[in-house]
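$ ./design --mode recover --in tokens.txt
reading tokens...
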């Protein structure tokens, strides 16, 4: 496997020679932590950007070895100079911002030169562009409710009947009430009755909802 990867690296333009060393993962019976695989690559090159090539080589080796991540691949040149190791700086926010700025500046500069060359000539002006871009990642979350899609989930009914009858006794007033040993006879008084009916109904509905999460990785100038 190491020889095949080395030959693949040598096929890259500008790479004269390459040597690959791979340390596969090992897990002992009494160890919980599994040692992650790692690799080191030594290259001899000419006429290329060594740092950019080193980043490509790291990803190439990581893709060829199961369980190997690019940040576990170390790349050196034949003189012992470290070209790439540890976390991939190309994945950082600062590196991404710098790359976008350089791309935008180059595109705008080319447009300016093409527009002015026809009027001023190719060697009669200079154009310089400085771009400031914002590459912050933005995430937007929203929840949408559809009132037309409501579904009856439960109905709760409460019904109460109340009957109330009141009867009041009345004793007529007469002269006989003032005589001793005379008992007045009570007669029926006014009578009243009331009836109260109460009914309540509670209906619970379920409304369909949809959550949308949007992540924007673009940039603004």
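writing sequence...
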């Amino acid at each position: 496997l190491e020889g095949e990867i080395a030959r693949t690296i040598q096929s890259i333009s500008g790479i004269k020679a390459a040597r690959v060393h791979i340390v596969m993962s090992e897990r002992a019976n009494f160890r919980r932590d599994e040692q992650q695989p790692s690799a080191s690559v030594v290259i001899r090159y000419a006429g290329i950007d060594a740092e950019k090539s080193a980043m490509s080589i790291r990803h190439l080796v990581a893709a060829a070895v199961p369980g190997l991540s690019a940040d576990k691949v170390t790349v050196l040149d034949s003189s012992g100079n470290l070209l790439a190791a540890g976390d991939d700086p190309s994945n950082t926010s600062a590196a991404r911002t710098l790359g976008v700025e350089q791309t935008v500046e180059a595109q705008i500069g080319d447009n300016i030169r093409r527009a002015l060359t026809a009027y001023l000539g190719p060697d009669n002006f200079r154009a310089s562009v400085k771009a400031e871009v914002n590459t912050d990642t933005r995430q937007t979350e929203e929840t949408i409710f559809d009132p037309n899609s409501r579904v009856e989930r439960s109905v709760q009914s409460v019904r109460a009947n109340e009957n109330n009858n009141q009867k009041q006794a009345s004793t007529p007033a007469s002269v006989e009430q003032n005589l001793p040993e005379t008992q007045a006879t009570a007669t029926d008084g006014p009578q009243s009755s009331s009836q109260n009916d109460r009914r309540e109904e509670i209906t619970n509905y379920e409304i369909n909802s949809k959550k949308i999460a949007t992540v924007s990785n673009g940039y603004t100038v």
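exit 0
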